[in-house]
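Appendix B: complex inputs.
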Amino acid sequence: MTPAPLITGYLFDRQVHAGNLAEIWLGTSAPGQQVAVTILTAAGAADPATRQRLEHSAQRNPLLWAANFSADRPYVIVRVASEQDTAGLLFDSLTALLPPAEQLDGAELRRLLLTPSTPAPAAPAVATPHTAAVPLGASDDTHPDTMTARAGPGATLKRNARAVAGIVTVVVICAAYLVGGTLNSALARSSSGQTDGQLPTPAPLPPDTLLPGVMKVPEAALRPGLRPVPVIGATYAADEKANPVIDLGLPFAFRWPSGSAGTIGLGETSYALFRRVIAGQNRAKTPIDLRLAAHPCQDLPTCLAERAVFDRTWTQKFTARPPATARDRQTWYTQSDSSSSKTYELTLTRAFTSCGQWWLVGAVITAMPEHRIDAQKVINDIRTQTS
Amino acid sequence: MLVAALIAFSAGAVWGFPGGGQSATGRELPEGLCHRLGDIDALFPQATSLKEAPLAGGVRCQAVAAKLQQPTHSQATLTITVNTFASTDDRSPVDEARRRFDTEPWPAVPAQAYPTKIRRTEHGDQWWEIEVLGVYGDTVVRVAYNAQPITRAAAERAVLILTDKALWESR
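Resulting structure:
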């Protein structure tokens, strides 16, 4: 038996025909496909008619898998669907490839194909005339796989070297693509941050951004049994029915004439608290309207020193006349009762202390003329409760 | 092989990783962004710190001083939202961020290093709510500060500084 042909990507281990002009071998491709190869011997390769017949018949072969007609030992590889049908279809394919002088007997081929495989002898160290006829480096004419018929250990070494070179090439290409991709990514990232100029270095936050707020005071209770201390006009009688106003968050409470009182928060600043009390719920048509401001101060002298600024602040906010008449050294008022005005207005500023904290309180009450007495009672009660 | 490597490098440089390394939810922000924004005590009646809250596509930092819980008539709420954007089929991350920025019809803040918008709302005397929106690259920062008592100028200055900080720390 001649040595099996060495064709890269295939392993041929069963020779089914050994003629002077051609051989037939069975084997498998690298992916596992069963194949058969018809390969010319050196004598067959030297015969132009045999070469031409091989090439001509291969072009019409329905089982053609691969071929190389330019090799020193031209060959044609056909696929084998199964050994059972090989005897019929494959016989026709293979015999068509053989020279007329070496046509196979069908029964003999069937027997050979169905015989359990026996390993073929390895290629000899020194190439035989048959295998030496297949040159190294010859390329396959029809199949993309690398199928170079070659022989000898020198060929194996070269083939391995070429495989390593191929792997190295693939690795280098992948690495080059990765480097290029990373560069592209970096460029895209840097460009995304350079569209609006350079970011300024952040400045520190100013230490006094939020102003100090006025301290909250506990809910003030109405002080019962106090002797009325009027600023001007009428005061509540001892047994007079009136509603206490205690939920304004101010350091004092006071009484409101009979009827519901609506309390409205007008906000707080770092300087003062602002509140409003109306009769009923209709802000636009309330018969009595009281507005209050409260400013904390360190002590009485400070309160007195700050009174002018305080009066200017709250009367401007409430559009009221500043209290100008001193009732005592801590109390000032102004009454507006002109006939030209359809409303009565009474303003009050008073300095007082509550729970150890000194305050300036400003108040302006406006009322319809028929509620003039009620307005005076409210202001006088504030004066009394802040005694 | 050299030629093949050059071709592969060129292909990678042109087509490789076109999103700039971004995921579908945008660039990942630095760890501990809220902490990195620094001391904000000056904006609150008492010492406080920003709490980080999970947010799709970004980070939200928030601190609240409720009026009811303060010994003074004071309150403050600060919310800083940082979003980064990913590329879409037809828009780059920068375009996506700018599109989000453009949805707010607020007036622009002049003389800023990056596009900035502001909205001012006065809730009462010395009670302001300032909102600033800034965009830089693929990042949009929104800072909202609602505080009392405070002047408008001080609130605006603080919010603009915080916008600078948020963008700076989001790089």
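Chain A touches chain B through 54 residues (CB under 8 Å).
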